[in-house]
Amino acid sequence: MKRGGLCICLALLLLLLTACGASGGTMGDSTSAANGAAQPTEEAVAMDTAESDVAADFSAVRENAKLILSADLALETQEYDTACAAIERMTAEAGGYIESSGSYGEKGSRTANYTLRVPQEQFETMFTQLGESCHVVSSNRWSEDVTMAYTDIETRLATLRTKHERLLALLDQAGKMEDIIELENALADCEYEIDTLTGEMRHYDDLVGFSSLHVTLNEVQTLTAVSEGTGFGAQVSRAAQSGLDGLTATVRGIILLVVTLWPVFLLMAAAGCVLAVVVTHRKKKEQAQRQQPPVPPAVTTETDEAHDPQSTNSPDK
Fold first, then answer.
1. Bridge-partner residues for 72, per DSSP?
2. pLDDT tens per residue across all 317 residues of the chain
């Protein structure tokens, strides 16, 4: 009995250990599964954080660097006046100004040129809005890094200002007229260099602070087809559009030619009418002459002379 009870106790102990191991394994599996499920999320968060850090670093570099941003845009529109008003309105809303503008050409084929200056932080927005407001034929943008030149000017200005202060201190201590004149000349040269470099710095500040957009706006009847790919379908589409544009241009050219040369065509029509009248009149005259019967010639015979009463009055009688 004691051995049987001991065996039963050992069996129960083994069952308990097995159950604990299974539960531990289950818990371990569930924990690892939970960790595995949470790990991609943490990686995604880490990637998002890295991307945001890169973007932040880029923006920081752009803010610290002295970049002159510029762009060229060739635009087309079928509503010229509306497009010009939209460009001027967008420039004002962006906090910029129109540096120069000009318009030339006749109605239907006018061209406007704009040089727009907008704050650098509004450059991308303005570039996008211009592309959305009109049909873009071509666009190009670039940047010029003037950080080194700007830093060099700052360094030279700091050196010159220090030199200017020392010259002023020496001038206060100078007692001889020769020394005073020499120091004043040196001060004048130093101030001239300071003013020149200050002007250059202000010029750079203006170029960096306000970006330039050079816009050419053309008024057209048909918008230029822009390439949308190099496949066969795109080539067929461009060929069809080119053919339609060519036909339209040909018809328009013929109409313009006729309208331009209408006096010549009018004179030619008048000359043709006169010629037709003359030819018709001549043909009618010839036809009338052909239809008239011929008149027989008069014939004088001896019998008629014999019966002629006047023939008795001869000279002999």
1. 140, 214
2. 444 444 455 455 455 544 444 444 444 444 444 344 444 444 444 444 444 444 344 455 566 789 999 999 999 999 999 999 999 999 999 999 999 999 999 998 999 999 999 999 999 999 999 999 999 999 999 999 999 999 999 999 999 999 999 999 999 998 889 989 999 999 999 999 999 999 999 999 999 999 999 999 999 988 887 655 555 565 566 566 667 667 777 877 788 788 888 788 888 888 888 888 888 878 877 777 777 666 566 555 555 555 555 545 544 43
Interatomic CA distance for residues 24 and 30, integer angstroms: 10
| Count of residues in the chain | 317
| Tokens representing residue 199 in the block | 């002007």
CA dist 68 → 62, 143, 158, 203, 208 (Å): 11, 5, 24, 11, 5
Compute and round to an integer the Cα radius of gyration of the chain. Answer: 52
Q: What amino acid is encoded at 208 in this protein?
A: V
Cα–Cα separations (whole angstroms), residue 12 to 20, 107, 311: 12, 104, 191
Token duo for residue 155: 């360094």
Compute the distance between CA of residue 269 and CA of residue 276 in angstroms, rounded to an integer.
10
CA 49 to chain centre: 37
By C-alpha distance, which of 91, 60, 71, 75 is closest to 211? 71
Q: Which two tokens stand for residue 276?
A: 């037709």
